[in-house]
């Protein structure tokens, strides 16, 4: 039995199943709901299977159709890809469960095929071994994401979706230009080959600049975050959740992958610039979140702030710092998805998301608010939560490398986060009469939010597996403090 | 999993699980909720007793979970841990009975008792924490679960107080986090050890260690209400009386003071801290807080506010005791950890009784209240005399050992601080007693509720009477077998070479 399981090419499955699922959902809209749930479960199983393989092998390269690079297409997986895949699979399952009750009939017909397509694109992106395939998956991801944002159908949503489309295309264009330049000067697209061949030269420099600009635009790093809050806030709740939790992480993943493989050698001042922008994002995003009067905008600005943390690892550069940033990324995905789902629940029942008038609705939704509060613990970086572990590791890395100022940013970001999280939580503890609005929330919508929030909290206690994952194939260097 | 690992976890679970279940209970399941609360509290006491028994028979209890490479979450028994865990679990039972009576008929009781249980879980974790990161985890958890209790009434004042509490404590938590990480990068461990783990570090790191000490004390001083970080405490008195009891006696300020004890004795080691010249500034700060708190208490007309400033002052006795770097003074500080808890909880519960039964919130409304509520006021009187330090009550022994310790440490000025503080204690407590016992009662109380021929509900009356008797017992039986003094002597002997 074990032998058969070892032979299974798990690495292909997280890409194939969502694509098949997407087509089936399109063909049989009546069965879309159960098909998607099934697909999400299958993807989670496949990712687990892949993790089981990687535990023994460390890293895995799989030539599709047996052709192999540089002619064919290679898939590559190590601990870093596994972490991202697992994040996508867990959040994906949560979103599938949540959405099964969220959408009305006609919206659902559009949602399910698009969502599974996005899911497949995302998994393919995390497994791509060459920079052109990364482009293809990135473009596919961007287009499905735009379509999903537009799904809300309101004028606001359409405007944000259009802006998002333009930003997304612009970002991909920058990226593609960079890829073309690299291909021209190095003659390969495979990341592993590039890592050996890239020599500092003006062309490579330009390429690095173009690729980074494109990816940073898509990751919404300050000051290129302008498109994110409206797009994330005007989308339907499950879409907001997947945008903030997963989609922005995809471009960050590409940047990180390239950075670790061959950007790193290209200069240290660039790292400091990224750190600086990250710090600005942490503070600016936090301040803006504090100023918002609408819940979904508040959460969206919180994403801007939290994404900033991830960039603090660039100037630190140690294995410890990467671990901290990736831990943060993982727990942020869980917590932020839970938060957007909670906001969706509030809007679903109360019909609005004005923070000042939350009191009456929250009285009816104890589970939802629990989910929001638990997710908030991780967002604030208080123990026990994944956010705390990430913060601890980053703080330790910043003190060890003598760059304590990044640590101060971490602490300040925590204050701001506490400010905006409690701005919302404070409305639970009023004596407002529960709203008399009719309607009941489906249990799945409350429990899926709570489930993800709980994962974010438990990540603060059960740290062994996530950390061990990052050692597989040593994508970020071995050793604890490397 | 054997008993040595299971017991610390069970002690946590005995309040954590009832808390979780209580959250899910509908509002009207009063009996189930009450049973769960009491069962949890009693079970915890039994378990703590079991741990005590085990320790006396040479067993060692420890539960460990790897958190980060080189850093574990550790819950461990030890004399110091037992001191605090016994205090908090004992007083929790009393507070639970009181809270059940106090919150009868009020809304959101499931939420309240849920967080109440989590609060005690966090306190137990603080007590049993075997290293700084575990301590930090539970310390922050305590912040998170006391906030809902402080804002429980949902009024604007309560929410304002809650906001302030958060601003102070989250800042304190951040400082604690920063200093813990910093210490870890220097020492490579955070494990609490007798006489500390830092004295072996290179001398060139000493200035850094001094800065970290300052950060740690600032982080812990927020909860321990050292000046100038005490601002949240008097505001938080808007919370319901059982919560005040929890804040002032069982959990929050105690967690701060307890943390300072851990840092001075088991992170730095008292002798090392002394050689770095860190203890005298800490003692001075504590002395200043003692005087300042008492002075402010003098001018409050609101009873709970006066008691709150009194806490600011009294908690610093603990800090003063441990900062004097003398075994006897440490003894005084440690027993005051217990004495202050027992006495202050009595006072707050009595204040709560006056508010609940007669609607009295101010001292100027207390004319002759002793005749209407003799039991309550008798308990209050004992607590107040304990605070003043009148023999043979518990508080006398705190001050006695603090004074002896000050002489032992060659810090004669502390005697003056103690004397001035006692005079001030008397000056703000005796007028209350005079008003309550000797003035003529008014014709009508502000908002009287009738309890038949009893002065108030028994659930409200019994807890303060019990803790008042405890105050007496701790003083009268100071030399009985298995007493507090023996136990603290044991702790002290481990802290000094």
Automatic annotation (TrEMBL), chain A:
Location of this chain's protein in the cell: Endomembrane system; Membrane
GO biological process entries: ATP synthesis coupled electron transport
Transmembrane stretches, start-end: 12-30, 37-55, 75-98, 110-128, 134-152, 164-183, 203-227, 239-260, 266-286, 298-318, 324-344, 365-384, 404-426, 447-465
GO terms for MF: NADH dehydrogenase (ubiquinone) activity
Key words of the record: Membrane, Transmembrane, Transmembrane helix
One Pfam family linked to the record: Proton_antipo_M
Topology within the bilayer: Multi-pass membrane protein
Stretches assigned to the NADH:quinone oxidoreductase/Mrp antiporter transmembrane domain: 128-413
Ranges for domain NADH-Ubiquinone oxidoreductase (complex I) chain 5 N-terminal: 72-107
InterPro entries hit by this protein: CPA3_Na-H_Antiporter_A, NADH_UbQ_OxRdtase, ND/Mrp_TM, Proton_antipo_N
Membrane as UniProt keyword: yes
GO cellular component, one term: membrane
Protein's UniProt name: Oxidoreductase
Automatic annotation (TrEMBL), chain B:
Main localisation: membrane
Coiled coil regions in record: none
Record Pfam families: Proton_antipo_M (PF00361)
Keyword Chaperone included in the entry's annotation: no
Gene Ontology CC entries for this record: plasma membrane
Annotated keywords: Cell membrane, Membrane, Oxidoreductase, Transmembrane, Transmembrane helix
Xref: InterPro entries: ComplexI-like_HydComp, ND/Mrp_TM
Membrane-spanning residues: 6-26, 38-60, 80-100, 112-139, 165-187, 208-233, 245-265, 272-295, 315-338, 375-393, 413-437, 458-480
Alphabetized GO MF terms: oxidoreductase activity
Domain NADH:quinone oxidoreductase/Mrp antiporter transmembrane: from-to ranges: 129-424
Membrane topology: Multi-pass membrane protein
Location(s), subcellular: Cell membrane; Membrane
Xref: PANTHER family: HYDROGENASE-4 COMPONENT F, NADH-UBIQUINONE_PLASTOQUINONE
Name of the protein described by the UniProt record: Monovalent cation/H+ antiporter subunit D family protein
Annotated organism of origin: Shewanella psychromarinicola
């Amino acid at each position: 039995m074990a032998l058969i399981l070892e032979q299974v090419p798990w690495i292909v499955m997280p890409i194939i199943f969502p694509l098949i699922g997407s087509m089936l959902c399109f063909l049989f809209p009546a069965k879309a709901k159960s098909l998607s749930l099934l697909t999400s479960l299958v993807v989670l199983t496949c990712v687990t299977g892949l993790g089981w393989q990687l535990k023994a092998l460390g890293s895995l390269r799989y030539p599709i159709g047996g052709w192999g690079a540089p002619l064919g297409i290679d898939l590559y997986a190590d601990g870093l890809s596994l972490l991202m895949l697992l994040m996508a699979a867990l959040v994906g399952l949560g979103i599938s469960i949540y959405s099964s009750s969220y959408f009305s009939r006609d919206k659902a017909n559009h949602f399910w095929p698009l969502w599974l397509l996005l899911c497949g694109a995302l998994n393919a992106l995390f497994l791509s071994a060459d920079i052109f395939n990364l482009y293809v998956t990135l473009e596919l991801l961007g287009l499905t994401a735009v379509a999903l944002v537009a799904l809300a159908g309101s004028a606001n949503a359409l405007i944000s979706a259009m802006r998002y489309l333009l930003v997304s295309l612009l970002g991909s264009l920058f990226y593609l230009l960079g890829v073309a330049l690299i291909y021209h000067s190095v003659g390969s697209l495979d990341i592993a080959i590039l890592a050996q061949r890239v020599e500092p030269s003006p062309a490579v420099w330009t390429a690095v600049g173009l690729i980074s600009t494109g990816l940073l635009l898509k990751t919404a790093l300050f000051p290129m975050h302008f498109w994110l809050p409206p797009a994330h806030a005007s989308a339907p709740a499950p879409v907001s959740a997947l945008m903030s939790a997963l989609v922005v992480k995809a471009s960050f993943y590409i940047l990180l992958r390239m950075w670790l493989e061959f950007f790193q050698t290209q200069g240290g001042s660039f790292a400091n610039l990224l750190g600086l922008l990250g710090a600005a994002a942490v503070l600016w995003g936090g301040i803006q979140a504090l100023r918002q009067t609408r819940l979904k905008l508040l959460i969206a600005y919180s994403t801007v702030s939290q994404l900033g943390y991830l960039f603090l690892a660039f100037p630190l550069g140690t294995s410890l710092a990467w671990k901290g940033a990736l831990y943060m990324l993982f727990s942020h995905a869980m917590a932020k998805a839970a938060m957007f789902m909670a906001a969706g629940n509030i809007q679903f029942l109360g019909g609005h998301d004005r923070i000042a008038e939350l009191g009456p609705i929250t009285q009816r939704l104890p589970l939802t608010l629990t989910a929001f509060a638990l997710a908030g613990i991780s967002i604030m970086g208080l123990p026990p939560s994944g956010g705390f572990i990430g913060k601890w590791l980053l703080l330790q890395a910043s003190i060890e490398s003598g760059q304590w100022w990044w640590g101060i940013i971490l602490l300040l970001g925590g204050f701001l986060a506490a400010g905006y999280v409690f701005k919302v939580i404070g409305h639970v503890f009023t004596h407002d009469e529960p709203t008399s609005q009719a309607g009941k929330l489906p249990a799945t919508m409350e429990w899926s939010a709570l489930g993800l929030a709980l994962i974010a909290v438990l990540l603060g206690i059960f740290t062994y597996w996530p950390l061990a994952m990052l050692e597989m194939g040593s994508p970020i260097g071995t050793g604890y403090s490397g | 999993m054997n008993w040595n690992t299971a017991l610390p976890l069970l002690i946590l679970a005995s309040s954590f699980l009832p808390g979780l279940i209580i959250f899910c209970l509908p509002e009207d399941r009063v009996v189930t909720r009450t049973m769960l609360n009491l069962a949890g509290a009693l079970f915890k006491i039994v378990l703590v007793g079991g741990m005590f028994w085990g320790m006396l028979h040479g067993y060692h209890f420890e539960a460990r979970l790897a958190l980060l490479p080189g850093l574990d979450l550790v819950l461990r028994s030890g004399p110091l841990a037992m001191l605090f865990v016994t205090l908090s679990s004992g007083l929790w039972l009393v507070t639970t009975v009181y809270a059940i009576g106090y919150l009868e008929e009020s809304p959101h009781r499931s939420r309240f008792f849920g967080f109440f249980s989590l609060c005690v879980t966090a306190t137990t974790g603080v007590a049993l924490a075997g290293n700084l990161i575990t301590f930090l985890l539970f310390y922050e958890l305590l912040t998170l679960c006391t906030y809902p209790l402080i804002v429980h009434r949902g009024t604007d004042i309560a929410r304002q107080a809650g906001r302030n509490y958060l601003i102070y404590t989250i800042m304190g938590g951040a400082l604690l986090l920063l200093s813990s990480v910093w210490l870890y990068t220097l020492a490579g461990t955070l494990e609490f050890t007798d006489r500390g783990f830092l004295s072996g570090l290179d001398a060139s790191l000493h200035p850094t260690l001094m800065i970290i000490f300052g950060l740690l004390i600032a982080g812990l001083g927020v909860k321990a209400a050292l000046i100038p970080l005490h601002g949240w405490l008097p505001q938080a008195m808007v919370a319901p009386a059982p919560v005040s009891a929890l804040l002032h006696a069982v959990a929050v300020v105690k967690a701060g003071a307890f943390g300072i004890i851990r840092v001075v004795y088991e992170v730095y080691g008292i002798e090392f801290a002394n050689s770095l010249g860190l203890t005298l500034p800490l003692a001075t700060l504590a002395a200043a807080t003692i005087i300042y708190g008492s002075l402010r208490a003098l001018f409050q007309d609101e009873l709970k506010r006066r008691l709150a400033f009194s806490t600011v002052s009294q908690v610093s006795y603990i800090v003063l005791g441990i900062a004097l770097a003398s075994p006897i003074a440490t003894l005084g500080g440690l027993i005051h950890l217990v004495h202050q808890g027992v006495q202050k909880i009595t006072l707050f519960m009595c204040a709560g009784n006056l508010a609940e039964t007669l609607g009295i919130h101010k001292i100027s409304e207390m004319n002759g209240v002793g005749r209407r509520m003799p039991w309550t006021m008798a308990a209050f009187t004992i607590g107040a005399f304990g605070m003043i330090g009148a023999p043979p009550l518990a508080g006398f022994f705190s001050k006695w050992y603090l004074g002896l310790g000050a002489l032992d440490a060659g810090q004669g000025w502390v005697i003056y601080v103690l004397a001035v503080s006692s005079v001030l204690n008397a000056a703000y407590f005796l007028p209350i007693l005079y008003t309550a016992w000797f003035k003529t009662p008014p014709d009508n109380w502000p908002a009287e509720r009738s309890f038949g021929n009893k002065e108030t509900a028994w659930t409200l009356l019994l807890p303060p009477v019990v803790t008042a008797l405890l105050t007496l017992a701790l003083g009268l039986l100071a030399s009985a077998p298995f007493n507090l003094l023996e136990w603290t002597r044991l702790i002290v002997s481990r802290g000094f070479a």
